[in-house]
Amino acid sequence: MRQVNVHAAKTHLSRLIEEVERGETVILARAGKPVARIVPIEEPLTTGRIGFLKGHVKRADTFEASGSAEVDGLLGGFF
Fold first, then answer.
1. pLDDT at residue 45, as a whole number
2. Domain for residue 23, yes or no?
3. What is the tally of structural domains in the chain?
4. CA distances from 52 to 13, 48, 55, 57 (A)
5. What span, in angstroms and rounded, lies between the C-alpha atoms of 19 and 30?
6. Tens digit of pLDDT for each residue in 8-53?
7. CATH number for 24
8. How would you classify residue 74: left for phi > 0, otherwise alpha for psi between -120 and 50, otherwise beta?
9. Could you tell me which residue, 46 or 67, shows the higher pLDDT?
10. What is the span of the domain harbouring residue 6?
11. Is the pTM of this model over 0.70?
């Protein structure tokens, strides 16, 4: 574990990130006092899940329109 002052961290941020990517932990300090820790992410970040079933879900042929003009208008002719 390495401790780096904030000023040096701003100057060498790319290098510090490379160290973290290799699994090391970096402690950020202000005037020699630790204030933050940079650690590797253990789980990969995921993207949003909106639309993940696009093209895989189909409506049933037996679906009936609601009959309500307000609901049909909100659905925008989707069904």
1. 66
2. yes
3. 1
4. 35, 9, 9, 10
5. 20
6. 999 999 999 999 999 999 999 999 999 999 999 887 766 667 777 7
7. 3.40.1620.10
8. alpha
9. 46
10. 2-38
11. no
